[in-house]
């Protein structure tokens, strides 16, 4: 069997976007990919990220926030940045093979009612899910 393809999803705090991306890819392709997520700084996993992933039957409640520095010994095949702050702070990972930028809005920054905030988390989850499915489709061709 081949070595799994190592993918790292990065955002500023590793609280929601990168956590959802990690859970989605792990769910979609558990055998083919070794999936990680991290942030420039580690913030607590967002409860609403856990909730909207559970709506898809994906449990990310046991995932934990990781600081990018904690993963410096791993060479990744793909590094995917999900926010501008990380893209500008980590312009390139020369030791890693492919760097991609998939900008998506930070649902953690949305103000308003719980319903408004949940809608933002769902929208971000769906953006990432759509992008991942397209990326996986391209990778298989």
What descriptive keywords fit this protein?
141 residues; alpha/beta; 4-stranded parallel sheet; 4 helices; 38% helix; 16% strand; globular
Architecture overview:
It is a single chain. The protein is α/β, with parallel strands linked by helices. Helix content is 38%, strand content 16%. It contains four helices and four strands, in the order E-H-E-H-E-H-E-H. The protein has helices at 17-28, 47-54, 84-89, 114-140; strands at residues 5-11, 33-39, 78-81, 98-101. A four-stranded parallel beta sheet has the order 2-1-3-4. Strand 3 (78-81), helix 3 (84-89) and strand 4 form a beta-alpha-beta unit. Helix 1 (17-28) crosses helix 4 (114-140) and helix 2 packs across helix 4. The two termini are 20 Å apart. The relative contact order is 0.20.
How much helix, percentage-wise, in residues? 25-40%
What structural class do helix, strand and pairing data support?
alpha/beta
The whole-angstrom Rg is 14 Å
Count every helix, treating DSSP H or I runs of 4 or more residues as helices. 4
Catalogue the unreliable spans.
none
Distance between the termini: 20 Å
Shape: globular
SSE order = EHEHEHEH
Per DSSP E runs of 2 or more residues, the count of β-strands stands at 4
Strand order of the largest sheet: 2-1-3-4
* Largest pleated sheet: 4 strands, parallel
Mean pLDDT comes to: 89
Task: Quote the beta fraction.
Answer: 15-25%
